[in-house]
Amino acid sequence: MKRKVEELGGRRSFFRKLGAAAAGLGAASVLPDATLEGAMQGVNKSSMPSQLKITDLRVAVVTGAPFTCPIIRIDTNQGLSGYGEVRDGASKTYALMLKSRLLGENPCSVDKVFRKIKQFGHAARQAGGVCGVEMACWDLAGKAFGVPVYQMLGGRFRDRVRLYADTTEVEDGHAQGRRLKERMDHGLTFLKVDFGVNLLKDKPGTLNRPAGAPAAGSDMVMHPFTSLAITDKGVAYLSDFVAAIREEIGMEVPLASDHYGHIDVNSCIRLARAMEKHQLAWMEDMVPWQLGHLMKQIKDATETPILTGEDIYLKEDFAKLVDMGAVDMIHPDLASAGGILETKKIGDYAQERGVAMAMHFAGTPVSFMANVHCASATENFIALEHHSIEVPWWEDMVTGLPKPLVKDGHAVAPDAPGLGIELNPDVVKQHLLKGEGYFEPTPQWDTERSWDRLWS
């Protein structure tokens, strides 16, 4: 009985204290602002998100990662900095030109900022500045609110993000297969390989190239206009090449493919049909993404899955390809597609129409972690590309996460705020592009002005 009385007294005391606290809160609502500010001085807060403002944008261009990648840093009035990345191979100018349009904006209003600058992006690398800024805004918003980016996207569908790795080609199929097997031995459970006209250039009778046609693999001529075709002998050679790879790695592991050269549509169809018995996970970018009707022609003629997307900017053009039935899967590069939120929107749109999403990536750990957050929060995600397995210092560019960042062929979506990383200045400085500084001031971009409205 005594114990019950004591418990009751304890509960009553608890509720009296709770009531007093509530009354205190009510009183606080009528206290002067200065008094409230003084009461908050002892609170450990990293920022006041509603008052966060962008004050600066700077760049550090890294090379050899394995590609050249401009990392951007956006600074704020509260001492918080957020990191983003312009897509590999792109110019830092794509980000710097946006600086005057960002100063004074609240980076926590990520979608508002994105809508303001998205008109300055375009397909492929030309989207790099807009996407890099969007990444950095999410990093800042997460740090300001103290939550990881994936949580602000609606939460995780998975704790671990599956990775796949490209593997540069050698001319012997069995040797290529052994290189891929090494990837498996290091924990990767999804592989990709390049094969195409480069393997045929010295093989008589494998390519049909009319007089005056561009050289094989010509970078500036779209596929239908090269007049380059693979002969039946060439198709058989490439099929034997992939068969040799399968003998080394087995049929169980997913094997995707890319880079066939700029060949005509009929060659694409015959090559895709020849690959059916090898059960490829997908054949990538067989024709330019802009030519959706030709991609649909290929897709309708084969059981091999057809995929594209690494150079597409914004959801609308992905939607066109999905709706016309031109692709089995989509393959956005977050640093070209519009950033983290736009890529999730792209994935969600595709999922509603029964299309899965893989993700292209070839940058530093900054963009990598942006991809990991997006992939963990997108339900129809399949696998994320990782291009830097052979770069020994790649993971050392960042701190804040347990190493290795990649384990057993997967990456973990971290619980730390924002993207979950900070840069390691010592390592980044060692790998700057010649002539580039480490986040040097950029006042020349502060006051560029233009009447940017797109309507009258």
Can you describe what's shown?
The chain is α/β, with parallel strands linked by helices and about 450 residues long. The protein has two domains: about 50-145 and about 440-445, Enolase-like, N-terminal domain (Enolase-like, domain 1, 2-Layer Sandwich), CATH 3.30.390; about 160-420, Enolase-like C-terminal domain (TIM Barrel, Alpha-Beta Barrel), CATH 3.20.20. Helix content is about 35%, strand content about 15%. The protein contains 16 helices and 17 strands. The protein has helices at about 1-30, 35-40, 95, 100, 110-115, 130-145, 150, 175-185, 230-250, 265-275, 290-300, 315-325, 335, 340-350, 365-375, 425-430, and strands at about 55-60, 70-75, 80-85, 160-165, 190-195, 205-210, 230, 255-260, 285, 305-310, 330, 355-360, 380-385, 400, 405, 410, 420-425. The strands form five sheets. It has an eight-stranded mixed beta sheet with strand order 9-10-11-12-13-4-16-15, with helices on one face. Strands 1-2-3 form a three-stranded antiparallel beta sheet. A hairpin with a 4-residue loop joins strand 2 (about 70-75) and strand 3. Helix 8 runs parallel beside helix 9 and helix 14 packs parallel to helix 15. The radius of gyration is 26 Å and the shape is globular. It starts with a helix and ends in a 26-residue tail after the last helix.
